[in-house]
Amino acid sequence: MSKEFLATSYRRPGAYHVLLLSTGSVASIKIPIIVQALLADPGNRFEVQVAATNTSLTFFDPQLVGEVSGGRSSVWSDEQEWGHWKNKGDPILHIELRRWADIVLVCPCSANTLAKIANGLCDNVVTSVLRALDPITPTYLFPAMNTFMYTHPLTAKQLKLVIDELGYNVIGPQGSKGLACGDIGKSLMLATGSFRVGAMTEWTDIVQIIKDAEASRPKDVDSATPKPASPFYNDVT
Ligand SMILES: Cc1cc2nc3c(=O)[nH]c(=O)nc-3n(C[C@H](O)[C@H](O)[C@H](O)COP(=O)(O)O)c2cc1C
């Protein structure tokens, strides 16, 4: 069992704390390179942590994240969520992660996790972070799925809901023309009459989005202090 995560001990003054939430798409394989690119920032502006669903962990080796980050970043999963909590008063991983994060990115976002978010489900560490997140935390969602999963009528409805009602920024997938409307560009039509859409936004673009978000954030906030603990959990634990 890996070490415990505490928002207070993991925040670095001046840093922008990036929480990547990784779910069950093959595009999860890009997680280590995104972590590496952010930590290589010449201004040393970022700290990065990853929380992953169990399915996402089948697509990449979490140890790679530790290796490329020199031990600065870890991948957190349900194993730690439930393994670290033993008694009343112990830190709760999904609450510590949401207190730590300045920005949250679901990349990649699977069809399954999108459906869960849109319906308020929170049955793993990833969806629990999102459900417990302070709504002012900038949240980005990068869908990645098979063409027919993406063009399924439920996908457009669920994307519209997370944009309109949760205020999430939805970027991509590659090949999508519109987002919430699920519109598909005609240019995607192949000679066979089929079309392809659904791959996650290029990882380099995701890194740039994070850098832009950092550059435009208010700089007068005390970045060493995590957000307050959840009053709800304080009451019940
Ligand atoms: C090899 C493989 C690749 C998959 N790729 C995707 C994908 O790109 N996008 C997606 O939404 N689901 C994909 N799936 C299905 C999801 O992994 C599955 O729906 C899973 O329950 C998602 O769980 P999660 O959302 O909790 O991570 C894939 C499944 C397999 C076996």
Question: In percent, how helical is the residue content?
Answer: 25-40%
The total strand number stands at 6
Structural class: alpha/beta
How many alpha or pi helices?
A: 11
Evaluate the radius of gyration. Answer: 18 Å
Spatial sequence of strands, sheet with the most strands: 3-2-1-4-5-6
Mean pLDDT metric:
89
**Which small-molecule ligands are present, each listed once?**
flavin mononucleotide
Strand-residue proportion: 5-15%
**Largest sheet, described in full?**
6 strands, parallel
Q: N-to-C SSE series?
A: HEHEHEHHEHHEHHEHH
pLDDT < 50 runs, ≥5 residues: 178-191
Global geometry: globular
Span between termini: 23 Å
Please summarize what this structure is.
The chain is built from eleven helices and six strands.
List the helices and strands and how they pair.
Elements: H1 7-10, E1 16-22, H2 31-39, E2 46-52, H3 62-68, E3 75-76, H4 78-83, H5 93-100, E4 103-109, H6 111-118, H7 125-132, E5 139-143, H8 147-151, H9 153-164, E6 169-170, H10 203-215, H11 231-236
Parallel strand pairs: 1-2, 1-4, 2-3, 4-5, 5-6
Helix pairs in contact: 2-3, 2-10, 5-7, 6-9
The structure holds flavin mononucleotide.
The site of flavin mononucleotide has 14 residues, from helix 6.
Please provide a written account of the structure:
The protein is of the alpha/beta class. Helix content is 36%, strand content 13%. The protein has helices spanning 7-10, 31-39, 62-68, 78-83, 93-100, 111-118, 125-132, 147-151, 153-164, 203-215, 231-236, and strands at 16-22, 46-52, 75-76, 103-109, 139-143, 169-170. Strands 3-2-1-4-5-6 form a six-stranded parallel beta sheet, with helices on both faces. Strand 2, helix 3 and strand 3 (75-76) form a beta-alpha-beta unit. Helix 2 runs parallel beside helix 10 and helix 5 (93-100) packs across helix 7. Mean pLDDT is 89; it is low at 178-191. The structure holds flavin mononucleotide.
